[in-house]
Protein: RpiR family transcriptional regulator
Organism: Thioclava sediminum
Amino acid sequence: MSAATQSIEDRLRTGIEEMTRTEKQLAGHILRHYPMALLGSVAQLARAAEVSSPTVVRLAQKMGYGGYPGLQQAVRDELEAQLVSPLVKHDRWAGDAPDTHMINRFADTVLGNLQATLKQIDHAEFDATAALMADPKRRIFATGGRVTGPIAAYFVAHMKVIRPGVELLEPLSNSWPPALLEMQKGDVLLVFDIRRYESSVLQLVEMAVEQGAEVVLITDPWVSPAATHARYRFSAQIEAPSAWDSTVAIQVLVETLMAAIQSLTWEETSARMARLEALYDRARFFRRK
């Protein structure tokens, strides 16, 4: 991903090794309180992060924004992008569309999204997430919004084969209270939430955290508000030459995660699959040629 297309959070994380001690302290404060930390003045941010005002200005320049006003404008642009409607998305890409077939344009964008998404995944965090979900002592719950709910359902359908104790929580569903009642400390809630972020998803996350659940969030570059409650968070690139965002990179990330979990639980998973196939055969579920 080029520097021009990196989010502010990505720029902070990728550049943190080259920062001074006070700049790292400031970057950590911004990441913990993003985006609110950047909506005040230089003096307010410096005071909150316990650094000097020149440190704030220097970090903004080092990030490539020219100064603090440029950094604040970038924040406002990101916040605006979170709320953009399908109509506005269409107008944005249609005005500058190259003179090539839609298949080529869309494929190029999606492949770029996929490469950028996988490149920025922290392998240690990915492995830790897989291990968390492979732990038989933990139950797994999954939920999503209006658009991402089907991805959560896809995940659950496959995970029920891989291991027991997996449940789908439908958006705005009356299944929430019974599920929350059964949710124990250490259970895992996998959440899908991309722009425009849904209040119901955040509400469910907050209630799950109160029950002691560990939250894994799959979101977009602008980051769902649920990120403040997540133990692990993965951001996927979703922009496409369409009125709607593309979920291809999210789907690949989900399938890769399931493959990693399966590799950790294969002894039990293979036995479950064998029993399941026997039940399918007995029920004559699939057609034979």
User: Anything to note?
Assistant: The longest helix spans residues 102-119. Residues 29 and 48 are 8 Å apart (CA to CA).
